[in-house]
Automatic annotation (TrEMBL):
Pathway: Cofactor biosynthesis; molybdopterin biosynthesis
Recorded catalytic activity of this chain's protein: adenylyl-molybdopterin + molybdate = Mo-molybdopterin + AMP + H(+)
EC number: 2.10.1.1
Cross-referenced SUPFAM superfamilies: MoeA C-terminal domain-like, MoeA N-terminal region -like, Molybdenum cofactor biosynthesis proteins
Cofactor(s) listed: Mg(2+)
Protein's recorded name: Molybdopterin molybdenumtransferase
């Protein structure tokens, strides 16, 4: 469906729209890049993480003590520190001091804990060995070539540590999608309080912050607006954003009023609609279109409504699954919450209702101040309770939950 004419088809079902966006993102995912392990945090594995050697690669002591051979008492003939390759224990009745992580000498039978050892008058070591083995055997954690983490897994500190322990210096990952934002609307102010018929732009700060939490790179200067309410200005603003971005989010202009220039601009740019309006409330109308660049790569334009909460619904409904695909990740699965209070349905539309989730009880309470143009409810929200078309959410019902994107350490 091209942008040459205004689409007259019925709105896309909300769950179908999520799937379409994810599939489009997966098809356009950029090629993997190699980055140093230290720089991979927050990215996505593009290749399976397999062991480059057995883990551990050699037998290592799991305690501080003495590696011994034969029966007690043992004559101490040396010391093994972590990072050294010891000589073999050739004779029964001998031992070496060993530190945790030290390589077990060839010929050693057991490890005696230092706190369970005593010295005889002639300086030998004695003690009762435990029945449990006090060292780690080669391959105890993983064998050479074993799959540890599959491609598509988000890289977090645990993955980084595991990769480093295996000997990886670099990791093949999906790069962060580059995003740009274009704010439409002559009525918007970028500083000071609203007044005289003009309102303060809330989406200029809000949308880039959310895009970063969805895993995007939003470079300095990538947010531009307000853009003049003319068709030429809209075309130029979107075209300039497409030059450096994989995703361009626009705010406002998704209707067909006298100063709504997004649809004509998409037509002028040769864009193809992937989704044009979604059967969800709030959030009507929203869209995602695709433009193929001269390099053959697809770029995406997400048309977000101008009302702040509707724009957030569009981000959660269309942009999050699109970015998951571009990042090489799985389609985000929906959790569930128990409703503490009733949430009305919206007829044939999915209703995404902002809720606050109580950490102790796990119940979700719908918020006040949640009109399309309001942000007060959003500031206290943890996400959306999804009420399916043709239903309503009764108190005590378990319904799907769409979480808001958070950074580590933010409120749950």
């Amino acid at each position: 469906m091209t942008a040459e004419t205004v689409a007259t088809t019925a709105p896309t079902a909300w769950d179908r729209a999520r799937t379409l966006m994810y599939e489009a993102g997966r098809a356009a995912a950029p090629a993997p890049v190699e980055v140093p392990v230290d720089d991979a945090d927050g990215l996505t594995l593009a290749q399976d993480l397999v062991t480059l050697t057995s883990l551990p690669a050699f037998p290592t002591s799991s305690v501080d003590g003495f590696a011994v051979r034969g029966p007690a008492p043992w004559r101490v003939v040396g010391k093994v520190l972590a990072g050294n390759s010891p000589a073999p224990l050739a004779d029964d009745g001998t031992a070496v001091e060993i530190a945790t992580g030290g390589m077990l000498p060839p010929g050693a039978d057991a490890v005696l804990r230092v706190e369970e050892s005593t010295r005889t008058k002639d300086g030998r070591i004695t003690g009762r060995l435990r029945e449990t083995v006090e060292w780690r055997r080669p391959g105890e954690e993983a064998d050479l070539g074993e799959l540890l983490i599959p491609a598509g897994t988000p890289v977090d500190p645990g993955v980084l540590g595991l990769a480093a322990s295996c000997g990886y210096d670099t990791l093949a990952v999906r790069p962060r999608p580059r995003a740009a934002v274009r704010i439409f609307g002559d009525e918007l102010l970028t500083q000071g309080p609203p007044g005289d018929g003009r309102v303060r732009d809330a989406l200029g700060p809000n949308v880039p912050a959310l895009l970063r939490r969805y895993g995007c790179q939003v470079a300095p200067g990538a947010v531009v607006g307000p853009v003049e309410d003319t068709l030429d200005a809209h075309i130029a603003a979107i075209r300039s954003a497409l030059a450096d971005a994989d995703l361009v989010c626009t705010t406002g202009g998704t209707m067909h009023g006298p100063v709504d220039h997004l649809h004509p601009a998409l037509a002028a740019l040769g864009a193809e609609y992937l989704v044009n309006t979604v059967a969800v409330r709030p959030g009507f109308p929203m869209l995602v279109a695709r433009v193929t660049g001269d390099d053959g790569r697809d770029r995406f334009i997400a048309g977000l409504p101008g009302n702040p909460q509707s724009a957030l619904v569009a981000l959660a409904s269309l942009v999050e699954p699109l970015l998951a695909g571009l990042r090489g990740r799985a389609l985000p699965t929906l959790g569930s919450v128990l409703l503490a209070e009733p949430v009305p349905g919206r007829g044939d539309y999915t209703h995404l209702a902002l809720v606050h989730v109580d950490a102790a009880s796990g119940t979700a309470k719908p918020l006040r101040h949640v009109g399309s143009a309001m942000l007060r409810g959003l500031a206290s929200a943890h996400g959306f309770a999804a009420i399916a078309p043709g239903t309503s959410g009764e108190a005590g019902a378990r319904v799907p939950f769409v979480p808001l994107p958070l950074l580590p350490g933010e409120r749950p």
